[in-house]
């Protein structure tokens, strides 16, 4: 049979091929049940409205002025929240026995995880499209060129991709999908609110919080997206974001694959 | 190579539970091996070990000469696993489920679609192929699961309680499929809690209890150990039970067991022809039986005679 390759190990190109097939599976699932996208559709709308009208006047004098710094911040924040859904669905898959079938197939161990993470890009895209569309409706305008805007979304995706692996880890460890939700909020809250997502100027925060905000990858991402979307110096924030993303993937990917392999 | 599945001294512990306590399994090519046992006997752990999903703590196992730990990748090319809980993707349609597996094992787009369609036809699912699997009945879902297991032309097929929860008709359909698979040359390892299922399908049966193999043989050999069938006579009038016991003892040559509460007299019976002799005997004695039947020993009776304890632990003194 031609499908059977001779080697013992499964090469990177086949691993990626398997991963893409399984990503197709995730996307097809979403096509059949679009209601699974409800969270990433509504969250940007709710967050935009709430933060804009609660903080707008105080922070920037007007909601219109605040919108220009809030929206790029939310681009950074929404990804972090959207990635939590991945752990939940992974935990569900494992419980239902779907992953047992994958594990008994001659495919790379990491393929189901890679497929799940790649397929999850759909949720990120939906979240970003809704956020940008609704923001524009409220009066947000990009002040830079399309290339910079694309770079901003690219950076946001890079960190999103990395955090997806944390979500995968949580999904593998958690005893039930409900637990994944709870755990997800616990790490997503300080990560996104303890950052410059809501306020470009973090100077009024107490010292200990500033220390955290300064190292927080979401701060670097928010600062970078803000500069890339409405103008201003990007500085090293883009590099810090990419470094963080790479670091997170390097730290979590092998652990996730190892734990998945051991899972019984 | 006679034995396609060969396991020696498999041991596996989960925390406090010794799921496998030294299990040997042999299965010849082109046969059905039935693994019979109650819940928690270690059947599923054994199957998962042979399917490379679990590493044994001790012992070794080979499938077609490949070690399930060291050569796991090769083993996975030869096997298919159909789980106790149908492991199809409920969100996908039947055809999408099959195409996904075909793509994963390396077939091209066209070939995957063709295989999916063939399998759907073969399992009478062509009409439901475009519907999400979550809308399927239990029997359809199990058929889809079996079909998914056949996408990569496996030589060894593990079926972990394939008929649990199915109605008799769906169960028969699964049985027919298993017979067909073996005719086509596959080797099947099937776990079950039902004696009649093992009897109907398996060439050899191993009986599991507390992670050990307590008996091994053909269903004939096992039945001999257990004593063939059981004759059960219920007295309409409890007072006349002793007379029934007398007739039954005379015909079967065994010492009948009696249950005063239900009025039931039971005895093992090897020769079904003896049933008429019992009827005649009862008639001559003028005793009326409210119920008279020959029945197969239940799994519980098999267990009782093989292990000296009941299949399902009573109460919570496990």
Percent range for β-strand residues of chain A:
under 5%
What gyration radius of chain A follows from the Cα positions, in whole Å? 20 Å
Low-confidence stretches of chain A: 1-7
Q: What is the strand tally of chain A?
A: 0
Number of helices of chain B: 11
Main sheet overview of chain B: 6 strands, mixed
Largest sheet of chain A: none
Q: Portion of residues in helices of chain B?
A: 25-40%
> Any low-confidence stretches of chain B, pLDDT <50, length ≥5?
313-318
Structural class of chain A: mainly alpha
What string, H for helix and E for strand, traces the elements of chain A in order?
A: HHHHHHHHHHHH
Beta-strand residue fraction of chain B: 25-35%
Please supply descriptive tags for the structure shown above.
heterodimer, A: 264 residues, mainly alpha, 12 helices, B: 318 residues, alpha/beta, six-stranded mixed β-sheet, four-stranded antiparallel β-sheet, 11 helices, 27% strand, antibiotic resistance (chain A), membrane (chain A), transmembrane (chain A), Nod_factor_ABC_transporter (chain A), ABC2_TM_bact-type (chain A)
Task: Describe this entry's structure for a reader.
The complex is a heterodimer of chains A (264) and B (318). Chain A contains 12 helices and no strands. The longest helix of chain A has 28 residues, at 146-173. Chain A has 264 residues and is mainly α. Chain A is 77% helix and 0% strand. Chain A has helices at 12-32, 38-60, 63-82, 84-96, 98-103, 111-119, 121-138, 146-173, 177-193, 207-215, 217-230, 237-262. Chain B is an alpha/beta fold and 318 residues long. Chain B has helices at 43-50, 72-78, 94-104, 109-122, 138-150, 168-183, 195-201, 219-226, 241-252, 274-285, 299-307; strands at residues 3-14, 17-28, 32-36, 58-63, 66-67, 79-82, 156-160, 187-192, 204-209, 212-217, 229-235, 257-259, 264-269, 289-295. In chain B, the strands form 3 sheets. In chain B, strands 6-7-8-3-9-10 form a 6-stranded mixed sheet, with helices on both faces. In chain B, a hairpin with a 4-residue loop joins strand 12 (257-259) and strand 13 (264-269). In chain B, helix 3 packs across helix 4 and helix 9 packs antiparallel against helix 10. The A-B interface holds A 1-5, 8-10, 14, 18, 21-22, 24-25, 28-29, 32-33, 96-98, 100-107, 111, 264 and B 14, 48, 51-54, 71, 73-74, 76-77, 79-81, 83-93, 96, 100-101, 103-107, 132, 148, 152-153. Chain A: It is a multi-pass membrane protein. Chain A: It is found in: Cell membrane; Membrane. Chain A: InterPro entries: ABC2_TM, ABC2_TM_bact-type, ABC_2_transport, Nod_factor_ABC_transporter.
């Amino acid at each position: 049979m031609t499908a059977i390759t001779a080697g013992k190990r499964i090469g990177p190109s086949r691993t990626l091929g398997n991963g893409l097939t399984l990503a197709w599976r995730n996307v097809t699932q979403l096509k059949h049940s679009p209601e699974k996208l409800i969270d990433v559709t509504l969250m940007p709308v709710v967050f935009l409205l709430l933060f804009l009208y609660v903080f707008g006047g105080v922070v920037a004098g007007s909601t219109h002025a605040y919108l220009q710094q809030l929206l790029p911040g939310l681009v950074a924040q929404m990804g972090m929240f959207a990635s939590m859904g991945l752990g939940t669905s992974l935990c569900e898959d494992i419980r239902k026995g779907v992953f047992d079938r994958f594990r008994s197939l001659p495919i790379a161990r990491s393929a189901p995880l890679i497929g799940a993470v790649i397929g999850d890009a759909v949720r990120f895209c939906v979240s970003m499209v809704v956020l940008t569309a609704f923001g524009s409706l409220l009066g947000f305008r990009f002040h830079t060129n399309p290339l910079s805007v694309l770079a901003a979304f690219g950076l946001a995706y890079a960190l999103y991709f990395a955090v997806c692996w944390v979500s995968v880890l949580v999904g593998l460890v958690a005893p039930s999908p409900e637990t994944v939700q709870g755990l997800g909020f616990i790490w997503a809250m300080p990560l996104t609110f303890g950052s410059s997502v809501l306020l470009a100027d973090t100077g009024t925060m107490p010292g200990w919080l500033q220390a955290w905000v300064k190292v927080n990858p979401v701060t670097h991402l928010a600062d970078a997206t803000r500069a890339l979307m409405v103008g201003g110096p990007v500085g090293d924030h883009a590099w810090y974001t990419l470094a963080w993303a790479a670091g997170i993937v390097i730290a979590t990917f092998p652990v996730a694959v190892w734990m998945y392999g051991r899972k019984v | 190579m006679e034995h396609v599945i060969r396991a020696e001294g498999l041991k596996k512990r989960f925390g406090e539970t010794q799921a496998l306590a030294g299990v040997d399994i042999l299965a010849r090519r082109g046969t059905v091996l039935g693994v019979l046992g109650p819940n928690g006997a270690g059947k599923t752990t054994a199957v998962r070990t042979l399917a490379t999903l679990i590493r044994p703590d001790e012992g070794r196992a080979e499938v077609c000469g490949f070690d399930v730990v060291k050569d796991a990748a090769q083993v996975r090319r030869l096997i298919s696993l159909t789980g106790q809980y149908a492991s199809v993707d409920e969100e996908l349609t039947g055809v999408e489920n099959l195409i996904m597996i075909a793509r994963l094992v390396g077939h091209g787009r066209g070939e995957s679609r063709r295989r999916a369609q063939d399998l759907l036809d073969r399992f009478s699912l062509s009409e439901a192929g475009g519907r999400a699997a979550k809308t399927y009945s239990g029997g359809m879902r199990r058929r889809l699961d079996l079909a998914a297991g056949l996408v990569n032309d496996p030589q060894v097929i593990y079926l972990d309680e394939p008929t649990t929860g199915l109605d008799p008709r769906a169960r028969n359909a699964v049985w027919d499929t298993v017979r067909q698979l073996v005719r086509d040359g596959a080797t099947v390892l099937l776990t079950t809690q039902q004696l009649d299922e093992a009897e109907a399908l398996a060439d050899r049966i191993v009986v599991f209890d507390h992670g050990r193999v307590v008996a091994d043989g053909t269903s004939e050999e096992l039945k001999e150990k257990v004593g063939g069938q059981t004759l059960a006579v219920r007295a309409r009038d409890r007072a006349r039970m002793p007379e029934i016991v007398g007739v039954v003892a005379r015909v079967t040559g065994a010492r009948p067991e009696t249950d005063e509460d239900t009025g039931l007299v039971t005895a093992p019976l090897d020769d079904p022809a003896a049933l008429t002799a019992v009827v005649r005997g009862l008639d001559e004695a003028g005793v009326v039986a409210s119920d008279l039947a020959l029945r197969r020993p239940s799994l519980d009776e098999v267990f009782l005679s093989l292990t000296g304890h009941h299949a399902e632990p009573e109460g919570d003194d496990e």
